[in-house]
Amino acid sequence: MSRGAEYKDIMRSYKHLSMRYHPLKNHSNVATNSMKFAEVCEAFDVLYNPETRAIYDEYGEYGLKEGIVRPDGSKIGGGYFLRTSPENYFEKIFQDGDFLTESRENDGSDAISSLFNDGLGGLNKAKPGKPADVEVSIDVTLEELYNGAVKSVMFQIDEIRHDAKTTAKKNVTK
């Protein structure tokens, strides 16, 4: 990647390389791919943020992570690290929202959005919320409460499907 690369080019490269090295997408040589995947996520995080990119362009990786002390004693850079796991970072980037217009925080708490939002016509549906708690009423006698009893109960739950975006009703017996 050249020093003058635009954000669109950085994002395009990240999308391509993250899919290439993601341990769940490429099962050959998982250890090497996991390390490369972490490097790709960190590189994208550094290059997409204007502040960290400027420090990296001027002083390199050492200046970004360790910092450079000026002759007057002040320090530039230092302390950078990817503040979440590469898998969580990848998930944030491919979630809902508009990645290009969203403001970014340098503390790792920003909600990075889907790169596919506009290009594939709205595949980024919002994930369903946490399923509601299940409440079941059971008729028991005082004797059963005192002595203990085993009862079978049938109820319905909302199960999140494999796409992690839709739910289905499921009957459960416990």
What does this protein structure show overall?
It is a single chain. With 174 residues, the chain is an alpha+beta fold. It has two domains: 7-93, Helix Hairpins (Orthogonal Bundle); 127-174, no CATH class. The protein has five helices and four strands. Strands 1-2 form a two-stranded antiparallel sheet. Helix 2 packs across helix 3 (50-65) and helix 2 (30-48) crosses helix 4. The protein is elongated. Mean pLDDT is 75; it is low at 96-125.
Question: What is the terminal separation in angstroms?
Answer: 56 Å
- Give unreliable regions as ranges: 96-125
Order of helices and strands: HHHEEHHEE
* Count of domain modules: 2
The profile of the biggest β sheet is: 2 strands, antiparallel
Brief descriptors of the model:
single chain, 174 residues, alpha+beta, Helix Hairpins, two-stranded antiparallel ribbon, two-stranded antiparallel sheet, 5 helices, 4 strands, 37% helix, elongated
